[in-house]
Input
Amino acid sequence: MDITSYLSDKQSVIEDGLKALMLQTTGSFAKHIEAMRYSLFASGKRVRPILCLATGEALDNSLETAKNLLPVACALECIHTYSLVHDDLPAMDNDTLRRGKPTNHILFGEAGAILAGDSLLTFAFELLSREDNSTLPAQKRLRIIEMIARAAGPLGMVGGQTLDIESEQIAVPLPVLQTIHRAKTGALITCSIQAGAIGAGATIEEMEKLTIYGEKIGLAFQIVDDILNVTSTTEQLGKAAGSDANRGKATYPAFFGIEQTKAKAKEAIEEAIDALHGFDAKADPLRQLATFIYTRSN
Amino acid sequence: MDITSYLSDKQSVIEDGLKALMLQTTGSFAKHIEAMRYSLFASGKRVRPILCLATGEALDNSLETAKNLLPVACALECIHTYSLVHDDLPAMDNDTLRRGKPTNHILFGEAGAILAGDSLLTFAFELLSREDNSTLPAQKRLRIIEMIARAAGPLGMVGGQTLDIESEQIAVPLPVLQTIHRAKTGALITCSIQAGAIGAGATIEEMEKLTIYGEKIGLAFQIVDDILNVTSTTEQLGKAAGSDANRGKATYPAFFGIEQTKAKAKEAIEEAIDALHGFDAKADPLRQLATFIYTRSN
Output
């Protein structure tokens, strides 16, 4: 399989799914919906939803499972997008550029961006619970909702972002940096995989292996992000390069230097792939996705 | 029955429920959880969760239904609280006082308040989906989640707040004001009642009646809020009085004057009580709650 065409195929699937599920810019709330759509359709890489779909395929590549997981995948992308919109706010990272375009608050104002984020988050839970968009047993759907809410909430993504901001300009020890990474980035990535696993009927053993896979690529993903923030130009990144250092953020490169950090990312990727031992060729996209995440840093 | 002692009993039930379900201020995210707790335990009136529990009781006053609805009621209060935290932000209403205390962002900073709100919203969906806290059939729990997500989202509460802010200093026509009210305040109040109805096994006919009840008291509630903003002192309100006029906000009193506005609130309350025709004495708290909402304005 060719990972580049796999990614591009899956990006289209997600794009179409989001277009079908997302609200249209009509009616009283048209401007608000436009603000939601602006960030949702800003050419994101769709990493989390792709991981969700690829995990589903690794266990059960039936059309029905793919259909059931599509709204879950779209909900994950809504949550990821809302987190970016809020992270970019003047009160947070104060970024004006994201994916090479003006950030949400630059175009829709601070209030507009806060509210667009709020709605993207809320809408994600509508997608996860809508009566008409899944044939999964209700019990499984509830488990997916609980898992995503935990991963995205105070002990997960939002908690991690809070700790990240609290830790700016402070010399935090490595364990705190690891907690930030695990919560801010790792939790949602891991649960994207776990949600796919639940939707595709994973056994307990499969779930354990996939959870390790998720945790390891979550870690690698954040380490690579740290590396790119140092080594790339703003043009390459589509957002402000060097911003971590400017904000006095703790990062892996700050602790270990670039070369050792790259080695750590590679190690995490290898451990992720090892965790998939026993899965058949249907899990090849997951294996190659892991490698792909690493090669971004080179 | 005495509505004052009913309210105080139910406030205790909600308070205890929130204390039991809410995260403790320990661990890496202690400060973030403190920010969530600060607004959640800031002596709110608990109107939405009480409406949810009272609706449950009106249909089925068993202990099991009460237990099943408690996490739903607490989730509604988390969502209401997050909306206040975000509404108070400098980028929105820029309020420094809420319930007689400093607003969240005054104490925890703007980023801290945005994130505390984000986590309260996300945590609400954790409460609604947690495996261990309900014996309701999963299908019903999903319906409650969907209903709440719709009411709180882009076509409901957040959409209403967006439109409200967009409409400041603009002479909006009455239908727009009514859309704002219905979405910003009415939707979550109505769905608090509907969620209670689903949890207590309402028939379609009961659900229809309760929905009308909810829409009417939602309207009355917002009208009374508009009135109080004009007629009360800051000390009585616990937040800035006269702020609607200062911000050039469309309100019922601005359209109709105080007396006619009061008459409209009274009419809505009467229609709410009428909608409960056919319900037995178990619905008396709902009837008296309607009256209570109106008497706040006098």
Remarks:
- The domain at 3-295 of chain A is CATH 1.10.600.10 (Farnesyl Diphosphate Synthase).
- The first strand of chain A starts at residue 97 and ends at 98.
- Chain A has one domain: 3-295.
